[in-house]
TrEMBL record:
SUPFAM superfamilies: FAD/NAD(P)-binding domain. Residues 17-332 form the FAD/NAD(P)-binding domain. Its cofactor is FAD. Keywords: FAD, Flavoprotein. Pfam families: Pyr_redox_2 (PF07992). This is NAD(P)H-nitrite reductase large subunit. The keyword Flavoprotein applies. The keyword Flavoprotein applies.
């Protein structure tokens, strides 16, 4: 059953399992529970319409000419009916009372306070699958800068880019920013990729590895500005910048302080672009975890017990981008099914062997170079070269126990013969 009015849901829904967040993590939990119990009441609360889609596809969809609608596997209402759950779409959770095991809701369907719907619903078990949100530094105003972290926002950007070749600046050269850069380039756009570090993926890999990635990115025709800090983004409204630039964005940037010896010698430079995309990391909203008394870190997420994925508050679980294990954020798709299966068994009171967290293999989606990472990589540390040729670089990260904690394998692409 699909319900879009939380006040109606409050009067009709039975106490059972409540899930906050309708991304991959939330729907995986529903699938796992329904595989073992067809009838237990489940309520899914989401601030959007609850459509099912595969988020990793967002970094490849523009060049593949796939619209937001093309990426939707099932509408929220259809998916809710198929799973026999109550869907509270376009609804915000404003508070969690962990002692009373209740949730306060407000409908986002109407902006007029006269028509706003408030409600309280109860839960036996609560699953937080609310994801993480893009970080917007003060230099990247949200009203001017895009992010590609949600299908609705992606669809809006895609509409703007459909008018022809444009110049896009991407701030942040992590996994997502680097993948988006290639996708936009393949779609025929001019791309400038800007990062504080001298090479892409510098937060997770050593300089010897990232230097190869930087070279590959540049070889594609992407303008990579490494070692620069974006200080401001403004809309051009003055014809002093040239009549053809009115309405475009002016991006100001300067050498990052840690990369220059004389900070007084820094000089700001300007880039004129059509769009700016922020790929500057993720943060987890602390309002609900704090209200529920859950141990939490804004950067890494909600702390859980690894074998059960229970939070530090009774009867509340967490999964996906909002969750962390042993202080490490878990923001990868591959482990979600196993995590959801563990939560399903635990909330249903079934015996299970416990979730065993294994960091997934990380692959950079880039045609110019093959990058595969296993373990828990970090730029700092004792990285040792295992293999080094023009075609391949393999490095291991050795921990304090002299064991391999991460491995990176970088290979040049195999060029077709003829």
């Amino acid at each position: 059953m699909s319900v879009e009015n939380p006040s109606v849901a409050a009067s009709n829904a039975s106490t059972g399992i409540v899930i906050i967040g309708a991304g991959l993590a939330g729907w995986h939990v529903i699938d796992a529970i329904r595989a073992k119990d067809k009838d237990i009441p489940i309520t899914l609360i989401t601030s959007d319409n609850g459509d099912r889609y595969h988020k990793p596809m967002l970094t490849m969809a523009i060049s593949q000419k796939k619209s937001a609608a093309d990426l939707v596997r099932a509408t929220g209402s259809d998916a809710a009916e198929a799973a026999n759950i109550t869907l509270l779409a376009n609804t915000q959770v404003t508070d969690i009372d962990a002692a009373a095991q209740t949730i306060q809701l407000i409908s986002a369907l109407r902006s007029d306070p006269v028509y706003t719907n408030y409600a309280t619903i109860s839960y036996d078990k609560l699953v937080l699958a609310m994801g993480a949100h893009p970080i917007f530094p003060k230099s990247l105003p949200q009203d001017l800068v895009w992010h590609v972290n949600h299908i609705e926002r992606f669809g809006q950007l895609q509409e703007k880019l459909a008018t022809g070749s444009q110049h896009v600046a991407i701030v942040g050269a992590g996994m997502v920013g680097t993948e988006i850069a290639e996708d936009l380039l393949k779609a025929g756009h001019e791309v400038t990729l800007i990062d504080l570090n001298n090479a892409p993926l510098s937060q997770m890999l050593p300089a010897k590895a990232t230097a190869r990635i930087a070279e590959a990115v540049k070889s594609q025709g992407i303008n990579f500005l490494g070692g620069y800090l974006v200080t401001d983004v403004i809309r051009i409204s003055d014809d002093n910048e040239g009549e053809n630039n009115i309405g475009k964005l002016q991006v100001s940037y300067e050498p990052f302080a840690s990369n220059v010896e004389d900070t007084d010698a820094q000089s700001s430079e300007i880039l004129i672009v059509d769009h700016v995309i922020a790929s500057t990391g993720l943060t987890v909203d602390g309002k609900l975890p704090t209200a529920a008394g859950i141990d939490f870190n804004r950067r890494t997420g909600i702390e859980v017990d690894a074998p059960t994925l229970r939070t530090t508050t009774n009867n509340i679980y967490a999964i996906g981008d909002c969750m962390s294990i042993n202080g490490v954020a878990c923001r990868y798709v591959a482990p979600l099914r196993a995590q959801a299966a563990t939560i399903a068994d635990d909330v249903l009171g079934l015996k299970h062997s416990g979730y065993e967290h294994k960091p997934p293999m990380i692959r950079l989606k880039n045609k110019a170079i093959s990058v595969m990472v296993t373990g828990v990589p970090q730029a700092a540390g004792n990285w040792q070269v295992k293999t080094e040729t023009d075609e391949e670089l393999i490095m291991d990260l050795i921990d304090d126990n002299n064991e391999v904690s991460a491995t990176v394998t970088i290979k040049a692409p195999v060029m077709p013969k003829g």
